[in-house]
Design goal:
CATH class of the largest domain: Alpha Beta
Keywords: Lyase, Thiamine pyrophosphate
Helix content: 40-55%
Largest sheet: 6 strands, parallel
Radius of gyration: 25 Å
Family: Belongs to the TPP enzyme family.
Organism: Methylorubrum thiocyanatum
CATH architecture of the largest domain: 3-Layer(aba) Sandwich
Strand content: 15-25%
Number of helices: 23
CATH topology of the largest domain: Rossmann fold
Protein name: Benzoylformate decarboxylase
CATH superfamily of the largest domain: Thiamin diphosphate (ThDP)-binding fold, Pyr/PP domains
InterPro entries: DHS-like_NAD/FAD-binding_dom, THDP-binding, Thiamin_PyroP_enz_cen_dom, Thiamin_PyroP_enz_TPP-bd_dom, TPP_enz, TPP_enzyme_TPP-bd
Number of strands: 20
Structural class: alpha/beta
Number of domains: 3
């Protein structure tokens, strides 16, 4: 029997080439919001039931959905935007993806190139627009180029440093016929082992037990190296901190050596790192700061060691005693036995440090519980209490996507899980990521339950995600933390005693009142059931019920502006 394939035909449409390449790359979802220039692709998907089109109602949401999917599935996300306007809508979340290093193949439909000289409606210089937020941007000028450029895009978005790449797809290219071969998938091993590991082992083992701290950055997650990071911490009995502004927490939060995430001010980071003789950072960009403070985040006398697949991050801001380039997981596989041999003579001292860590961890948990108990009966729910109850309800086995500034710091301290892929947050800092990212996350985890925690302000950037969650029937529980204001901004202003706003007690554009946002009505309009919680004792039950429902739902938690 002869099997007819696209490669055996005399010619095929550019859009059909694109779909065949997507299929061969294992793409399951195309995220997008279509317009006229995307219709050739939409038409080609008609005969591709194995590739689902996930409809977002706005392009920024489409980008974040693809971002969330790629992070959860650990494979490139593919999305298709609508010309210059759609690409413009998506730029904020493209910036988030760039900063998070999310591997995305971003495409946008372009006007038919045969009449661009007439400045037609919807035409724009897409590669220039996309350029600042992607690794590279290119317009496909002939259907013969499609297969090569698409495969290049899938390869390059995964190569270190990973991140989005962009292709502009003119309508005439997508409609043109071509007999160019589809090509084959390349097998590329990105797990390069770093150099100087013998020397690094000597340096790390030279510090007394407890005098070296580790930073588990986002590359630990990207290289699937959480298990190795735990072994490293155990060997050295080293306290482990998360990055100051992370996309993930790639170390088990239930491990007694886990110390939480670093603060976001240089002065706060320096206060912590100053307790140690040295710090070993796994991955780059672990010391991101938000508000300026005087002085360096790395205090004098604290030695810095780094391991990262991205050479650009090594020694970039802070002088290092030894930095080495390589995949974190593959390099730790080689480093760990070297370290074990070197620390063996002091095994008892390391064991005592590990025992002390268990006692200290339990004490920190007990102190947190006491704070929650003291605030539990407050007339309006304190954010600390809300975070505690949400963490208790979610437990250790359900994925969390977090974009709620009021509770974000609190929630991270309450996490208690051995699952190193439980938590994800908005590393880029551009609001509007969380709700659509949670949709992509559920798809990336094969439609597993996800709890999305989002602030009331952030929720209004991309509420369209509720509709997609309902349309796809995804088990996402959206928890809206509602303090009816841009709380993080107002609190900063209140800390600036020289501000006129403080003297007048008037904070322009900080309050989401008159009218208050009706999240229950908003959810209902998108086909999502919801409920409002105003008592601390009702939070856990509502979140647990939402998770058990197996369907999209929204829980609004009214909190104080503490």
């Amino acid at each position: 029997m002869t099997v007819t394939t696209l490669d055996s035909l005399a010619g095929r449409r550019g859009a059909d080439v694109l779909v065949e390449v997507l299929r061969s790359q294992g793409v399951r979802y195309v995220f997008g919001n279509p317009g006229t220039t995307e219709l050739p692709l939409i038409d080609a998907l008609t005969d591709a039931p194995d590739i689902a089109y996930v409809l977002a109602l706005q392009e920024a949401s489409a980008v974040a959905m693809a971002d969330g999917y790629a992070q959860a599935a650990r494979r490139p996300g593919f999305l298709n935007l609508h010309t210059a306007g759609g690409l413009g809508h998506g730029m904020g979340n493209l910036l988030n993806a760039q900063i998070s290093g999310t591997p995305l193949v971003v495409t946008a439909g372009q006007q038919d190139s045969r009449h661009v000289l007439t400045d037609p409606l919807l035409f724009g210089d897409l590669t220039t627009i996309a350029g600042p937020t992607v690794k590279w941007a290119r317009e496909v000028t002939h259907a013969n180029q499609l297969s090569i450029l698409l495969r290049r895009a899938f390869n390059d978005c995964m190569a270190a440093p990973s991140g989005p790449v962009f292709l502009s797809l003119p309508m005439d290219v997508m409609e043109a016929m071509t007999d160019a071969p589809l090509g084959e998938i390349s097998t590329i091993d990105h797990r390069a082992v770093a150099g100087s590991l013998d020397r690094l082992a000597d340096r790390l083992a030279a510090f007394a037990p407890g005098r070296l701290a580790l930073i588990a950055g986002d590359e630990v997650d990207a290289s699937d190296a959480s298990e190795q990071a735990v072994r490293l911490a155990d060997i050295l009995a080293a306290p482990v901190y998360g990055a100051s502004w992370p996309a993930h927490i790639p170390f088990p939060t239930a491990h007694p050596l886990w110390m939480g995430n670093l603060p976001t001010k240089a002065s706060g980071i320096a206060e912590i790192l100053g307790q140690y003789d040295a710090v070993f950072a796994l991955g780059g960009k672990s010391l991101i700061t938000v508000l300026y403070t005087e002085g360096s985040a790395v205090p004098p006398g604290t030695e810095v060691f780094q391991l990262s697949a991205d050479a650009r991050d090594l020694g970039r801001t802070y002088a290092t005693h030894l930095s080495t380039v390589g995949n974190v997981g593959a390099s730790l596989d080689v480093l760990l036995p070297l370290l074990e041999a070197r620390v063996a003579p002091r095994a008892e001292a390391y064991a005592r440090r590990r025992e002390a860590a268990v006692v200290a961890y339990d004490a920190r948990r007990a102190a947190l519980a006491a704070k929650v108990e003291a605030a539990f009966a407050d007339p309006v729910i304190h954010p600390l209490v809300a975070a505690s109850e949400i963490a208790r309800a979610v437990g250790s086995d359900v994925a969390i996507v977090d974009e709620a500034p009021a509770t974000l710091g609190h929630l991270r301290t309450f996490l208690h899980s051995t699952w190193t892929r439980q938590y994800s947050s908005i590393r880029g800092g551009v609001l509007g990521w969380g709700m659509p990212a949670s949709v992509g996350y559920s798809l990336g985890l094969d439609r597993a339950p996800v709890v999305c925690i989002v602030g009331d302000g952030a929720a209004m950037y991309s509420p369209q995600a509720l509709w997609t969650a309902a349309h796809e029937g995804l088990p996402v529980t959206f928890v809206v933390i509602n303090n009816a204001e841009y709380n993080i901004l107002k609190q900063f202003m209140k800390s600036q005693t020289h501000y006129a706003s403080v003297r007048a007690n008037r904070f322009i554009a900080m309050d989401l009142t008159e009218p208050r946002i009706d999240f229950l009505a908003l959810a209902a309009s998108m086909g999502v059931p919801s409920r409002r919680i105003e008592r601390a004792g009702d939070i856990a039950g509502a979140v647990e019920a939402g998770i058990r429902s197996g369907r999209p739902n929204l829980v609004e938690v009214v909190v104080s502006a503490a």
